[in-house]
Design a protein that fits this description.
Layout (H helix, E strand, L loop, with lengths): L1 E3 L4 H9 L4 E6 L6 E5 L4 H12 L4 E4 L8
Antiparallel strand pairs: 1-4, 2-3
InterPro entries: Dimeric_a/b-barrel, Tscrpt_reg_AsnC/Lrp_C
Pfam families: AsnC_trans_reg
Protein name: Transcriptional regulator, AsnC family
């Protein structure tokens, strides 16, 4: 889940869509601005993708939740 600077939602969306490993980007309303689905093969790659997201000048906060199959 990602928060961005107010007024930069469209720019952030375009930037997020171009990051390798990001499968889907959803603009949402509420506490967060975006929910991003990341599909990678291991946690080290997930860490690299999250680091890349956090490097963005438009991103102000992230929260990572790891899902598991039942």
């Amino acid at each position: 889940m990602i928060n961005v600077l107010p007024g930069y939602e469209k720019a952030a969306y375009r930037e997020l869509k171009n990051i390798e490993g990001i499968k889907d980007v959803y603009h949402v309303f509420g506490e967060y601005d975006f929910v991003v689905i990341i599909d990678v093969i291991d946690l080290s790659i997930l860490n690299a993708v999250v680091d890349r997201i956090r490097e963005s000048e438009t991103v102000t906060a992230t929260q990572t939740i790891i899902g598991a199959e039942l």
